[in-house]
Structures are given as structure tokens and as C-alpha cells.
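> example.struct
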């Protein structure tokens, strides 16, 4: 996909009202793509952008996916890409989670993406082109104690993406995964408010715009996986090499994460966060 072609592209972004999702929508809008920004509860702040169309949906419900694709097809006659960005995170001890919280994370982060991909692929196969981009996490490569369910959903999403990429070889439909490290969003604020989740700060947090830039990069030049920032790639793969490697380094990673979390408090968070509230 060349820079001159984005004006003719129709792109769906789920989780469009989130910190990463809204940055992706804004970046795509700058490239003159036609965007369908999907939100659930929080109304997006980019409703005034001329080429952004808002769609409210609960994508844990298969029928809402059907309505989303029908809306997009009726408005544009096609869609070129879908970016699965919607996610939920409830950090803390596994036993402190409610059954509702567990189910919501699994449905939002994993089941919903699979359902949407299944429905999108039927359309993309018929139209003969398309690109699915899943926003994963470094927590889908490196285990995340005290965010175990979230980590499991992102591990699953990574395995799903890799497996499906092999099935799609030889077709004009692509699937990719972008795995960012910590990103300065309300989700990271939530992790910062829990003393146990220092592993979330395995590297210095990046701003959401860098994830949006990665989306543009992968639209231009498709690849199965892109880990950002780049320096996390080797470290994450080392830590995922075996459980003993991760366990042996965990105390060091935890200590490093505590320091980085402290820096994050100082630079990005207000006094409310120190009381356990998101900014």
C-alpha cells in the first residue's frame, strides 16, 4: 500500500475511543483514509474529523459485528482493513478478580477479535483483498504476573494471528500483529496504581502516536509481527525462551519496573493516581 492510496482506503478501528485507538484514528485521518471508529461506552473525541464515521457497538456480541460490517458496506461498498484495538485490563492478584472481570477480559481481548476476524475474512475473501491488524501487547510474549488473564488473552491473540497468517499465504488477505510495550494510556495508569504490576514497566513507556505510526508502517509494508519499540524485540523473545529464564530474571525485572513506574508517576500522572484513581 503506497502513501498515495490511503485516500481510497476504508479502515475500521475498534476501540476507537481508547488512548491507542483514538491515536490510530487521528493518524489514519491525516492520511485521508475513510475511517469507521467503533466505540462502546466512551464517546470518542474525534467526532469532528470529516472522514471519521462513528459506530457504537458491543463487539462481544456477534450480532454487533454483523451490524458494523453492514453499516460499512452500505456506506462505502467495501472495507480494506480492520484494526482490532479494543481491550480490557484488570490488574492485580488473580484471586482478587471477579468472574465478571475475567469473562469480560477474555471476551473483549480475545473472543471478540476472533469473532470479528472470522466475519471479516468472509467478506475480504469475497472481495479479494483485505488486511486485519491485531493490536497485541508485549504481555502476549512475556508473562505478566498480576495481569495473568490479560496476558493470557494477548498470548492467545498472538498465536491466533501467527496460525492464521500461514492459512492466508497465497491469498490477497493479510493479517498482522503489533505488539507494543507499555503505552502512556489510562490502561497503564490503572496498572501503575497497583503495587504488584511493576512488570508492566519492562521498558520506558511510549506514547500512543508511536503505535499509530506502526499501524501506518504495517499498512504500507505488511508483515506478520511488529514489536515496538524495536529494542524490546530481542529482550521479549529471550524472556519467552523458557519459564526458567523468565523466573530467573523476574526479580531484576520487577526492581527495574518499580523504578520506571516511579518515573511514570512523576511525569505522566497526577495526585489522584497515587490514591488508586485513573487520570
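> example.seq
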Amino acid at each position: 500500500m503506497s502513501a498515495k492510496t490511503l485516500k481510497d482506503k476504508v479502515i475500521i478501528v475498534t476501540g476507537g475511543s481508547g488512548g491507542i485507538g483514538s491515536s490510530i484514528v487521528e493518524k489514519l485521518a491525516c492520511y485521508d483514509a475513510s475511517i469507521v471508529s467503533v466505540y462502546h461506552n466512551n464517546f470518542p473525541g474525534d467526532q469532528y474529523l470529516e472522514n471519521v464515521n462513528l459506530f457504537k457497538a458491543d463487539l462481544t456480541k456477534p450480532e454487533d459485528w454483523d451490524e458494523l460490517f453492514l453499516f460499512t458496506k452500505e456506506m462505502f461498498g467495501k472495507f480494506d482493513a480492520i484494526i482490532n484495538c479494543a481491550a480490557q485490563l484488570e490488574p492485580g492478584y488473580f484471586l482478587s478478580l471477579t468472574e465478571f472481570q475475567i469473562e469480560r477480559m477474555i471476551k473483549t481481548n480475545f473472543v471478540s477479535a476472533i469473532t470479528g476476524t472470522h466475519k471479516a475474512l468472509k467478506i475480504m475473501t469475497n472481495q479479494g483483498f483485505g488486511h486485519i491488524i491485531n493490536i497485541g501487547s508485549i504481555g502476549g510474549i512475556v508473562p505478566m504476573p498480576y495481569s495473568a488473564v490479560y496476558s493470557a488473552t494477548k498470548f492467545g491473540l498472538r498465536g491466533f494471528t501467527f496460525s492464521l497468517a500461514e492459512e492466508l499465504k497465497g491469498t490477497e488477505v493479510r493479517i498482522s500483529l503489533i505488539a507494543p510495550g507499555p503505552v502512556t494510556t489510562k490502561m497503564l495508569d490503572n496498572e501503575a496504581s497497583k503495587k504488584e504490576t511493576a512488570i508492566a514497566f519492562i521498558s520506558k513507556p511510549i506514547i500512543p502516536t508511536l503505535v499509530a505510526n506502526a499501524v501506518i508502517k504495517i499498512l504500507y509494508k505488511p508483515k506478520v509481527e511488529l514489536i515496538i519499540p524495536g529494542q524490546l524485540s530481542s529482550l521479549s523473545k529471550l524472556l519467552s525462551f523458557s519459564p526458567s529464564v523468565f523466573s530467573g530474571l523476574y526479580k531484576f525485572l520487577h526492581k527495574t519496573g518499580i523504578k520506571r513506574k516511579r518515573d511514570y508517576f512523576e511525569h505522566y500522572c497526577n495526585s489522584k493516581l497515587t490514591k488508586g484513581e485513573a487520570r
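> remarks
Strands lie at 10-13, 34-39, 52-56, 81-84, 130-135, 173-180, 225-228.
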